[in-house]
Amino acid sequence: MMDDITQIKSEVIQCTKCDLAKTRKNSVPGKGYQHSDVMFVGEAPGRSEDMQGEPFVGVAGKILSDALKHAGMSRDSTYITNVVKCRPPNNRIPSCIERESCAEYLQREIQVISPRIVCVLGNTAFNSVLGGSEITKNRGKIIRKDGQLYFVTVHPAATIYRRELLDVLISDIDKLSRIITELKNGKDIPADIEHTP
Ligand code: URA
Ligand code: SF4
Predict the structure, then answer these.
(1) Dist. CA 109 → ligand 2 center (Å)
(2) Which residues of the chain have pLDDT under 70?
(3) Alpha carbon distance 112, 141 (integer Å)
(4) How far, in Å, from the CA of 164 to the mean position of ligand 2?
(5) What's the CA-to-centroid distance between 188 and ligand 1, angstroms?
(6) Could you identify the atom of ligand 1 that is nearest to the CA of residue 156?
(7) Cβ-contact 14, 84 below 8 angstroms
(8) Which of the 8 DSSP states describes residue 86?
(9) Nearest of 7, 5, 144, 22 to residue 79 by alpha carbon
């Protein structure tokens, strides 16, 4: 059967593959434009997202929306999701088991949406998706893995307590917007890091 976003969404809503299903109010499937040029990947839903069943609708979501607007991008033209689709209690970092249980959904989202570039937000997503660490050292970089382009930046929530990171996020999203324009114009973008399996 052909996979699509509606199918993935309905599976996520009903999913009980890990223990986060027991404590969530709502699963939080990805949301946005099916044919988007860009997909944003955060860590996991927080309190607002768990209550509303939608990604990045709380304070971190407002910061992300503002950064998109600053870069001249409309949030509606993007697709936004998380590594883990259910809220970890007290917003703790999702465990390896939780991330592994949930990984197939993100893989399928990337396959179905087929974005020109995937923007990875923060250390947990960087580690889960690309095996990376030290986000503040690697942010702003373009990575190619298995033929897919990725762009790495800080998590919007991290900018709340580290004001200096807000300027970093805003300039990184501006850079991402320019990269997307170049990709749409058929320009070949060299990666800063090539992941060879
Ligand atoms: N933080 C995340 O990583 N994801 C959300 O959806 C909201 C906050
Ligand atoms: Fe399923 Fe992912 Fe939710 Fe765990 S976090 S129950 S794997 S949707």
Answers:
(1) 14
(2) 1, 197
(3) 24
(4) 33
(5) 31
(6) 1
(7) no
(8) S
(9) 5
